[in-house]
Design goal:
The chain is mainly α and about 400 residues long. About 85% of the residues lie in helices and about 0% in strands. The chain has 18 helices and no strands.
């Protein structure tokens, strides 16, 4: 198989498993609602998946290095297929079994997502595809899968029932494992990785990230951006829609317009991103993607104004994840990529649960519009401020010198 076809196979397999995951994001809460009728239990199931996902992304990566990244990807996806197939049987096993199975599935998916992404860099280099173009195209396709998967999940529940919809997610993981196992053959490393204890290997990942201040700053501001984004989706936008429009369809419209802008932005950035200054583009993307959306909600009751600002913010966010992904691939030495990418994913997602709490607390303390005004300023200061304080150029990859796998 040609290097380009191998890259397309790897990315396609990963996107296919993403599609199945999005179907389950709709199907599993519906399964819980049907079998228990409890919104509280729906929240427990979501938490049971999210926490193991974040922990395994960081803590399981040393074992992936030891076992082999490609072999880990195949094994974890096969295990995810089995776990999701059993989740479909959960109504007969009880709610406690469902929680345990969803937690296992979340943990498997966390490490699976990280190791597949580690395979992207060598595949792109063999195919001659610029890393920034790959990360931008992948980000756009992943957003498209998120939209399509959510819609497809709802349709499948109506067409074939919730159990069969979850079985389809299991099938996507099985196909992903098969494609990577049969068609993706990364070359063996020139030098085998040194044998290290688990804790020493994990410390090496944390130690490298701590010393690379450019990457650490990028990760922190992305985590903060995710915090405000999740607060918007969980609390601020639904409340604004309820108070101003009184029609829940407006909530879906606002989210859909943002996703549409992000898809257009990914298309534009895939074409032109390699010619743009990275540091300025990253800062501008964060500045336009967060604070303006909150300010529009605070100052306007006009849906058209909010949708226009939201669309522009969606275009701006399209540059952020690809630039962060390219920086991780270019700056982190190959021997540490699995561990550092795993830790980076966990750091970037830390803002999500905090954001849900922040959204509810801010409205309870200040009411919606004052909270939005305060959070507009906070969002701008906390996302763009750290980047402006740093004078080092983030648009040049650091020399990929081999580093010791212990903290500096």
């Amino acid at each position: 198989m040609s290097p380009r076809r191998e890259l397309y196979t790897l990315v396609g397999a990963d996107l296919l498993s993403n599609l199945g995951t999005r179907i389950s994001v709709v199907a599993i809460p519906w399964l819980v609602l049907q079998t228990t009728g409890s919104p509280t239990r729906m929240g427990l199931v979501a938490a049971a998946e999210t926490l193991p996902y974040m922990l395994s992304s960081a803590l399981a990566t040393p074992w992936a290095d030891r076992f082999g990244v490609r072999r880990t990807a195949v094994t974890v996806d096969a295990a995810s297929a089995a776990a999701m197939a059993v989740v479909a049987l959960a109504p007969w096993l009880g709610f406690g079994a469902l929680l345990a199975l969803v937690a296992v599935a979340g943990g498997l998916r966390g490490i699976g997502d990280r190791v597949k992404h580690v395979l992207f860099k060598p595949a792109a280099e063999r195919a001659g595809v610029p890393l920034l173009r790959l990360t931008s195209a992948y980000d756009g396709l992943a957003r498209g899968m998120t939209l399509f998967g959510a819609v497809l999940g709802g349709l499948l529940i109506n067409w074939v029932g919730v159990t069969r919809a979850i079985w389809l997610d299991a099938a996507t993981f099985a196909v992903c494992a098969l494609l990577i196992g049969v068609l993706v053959r990364p070359p063996a490393p020139a030098q085998p990785a040194p044998r290290e204890s688990y804790l020493r290997a994990l410390r090496g990942g944390f130690g490298y990230l701590r010393t690379d201040r450019v990457l650490l700053t990028m990760l922190v501001v992305v985590s903060v951006s995710n915090m405000f984004a999740n607060a918007s989706v969980a609390v601020w936008i639904p409340l604004w829609v309820d108070r101003v429009l009184g029609d829940p369809a407006g909530f879906g419209l606002v989210l859909g317009v943002f996703s549409g802008g992000a898809l257009l932005g990914n298309l534009l950035f895939t074409v032109a991103g390699t010619r743009l200054p990275r540091q300025a583009t990253f800062a501008l993307g964060l500045a336009l993607s967060g604070a303006p959306r909150l300010l529009a909600l605070a100052l306007s009751d006009d849906l058209v104004v909010v949708l226009v600002v939201t669309f522009v913010s969606g275009i701006a966010i399209a540059a952020v994840n690809p630039l962060l992904g390219a920086a991780l691939y270019e700056r982190v030495p190959a021997a540490l990529q699995t561990r550092v990418l795993g830790i980076a994913g966990s750091v970037a997602f830390l803002g999500l649960p905090v954001g849900a709490l922040l959204g509810g607390w801010s409205v309870a303390a200040l009411d919606l519009r004052p909270a939005l005004l305060v959070m507009t300023v906070a969002c701008l200061v906390l996302t763009v401020g750290p980047l402006l304080l740093r004078r080092r150029a983030a648009d040049r990859p650091a020399a990929a010198e081999p580093v010791a796998s212990t903290p500096a």
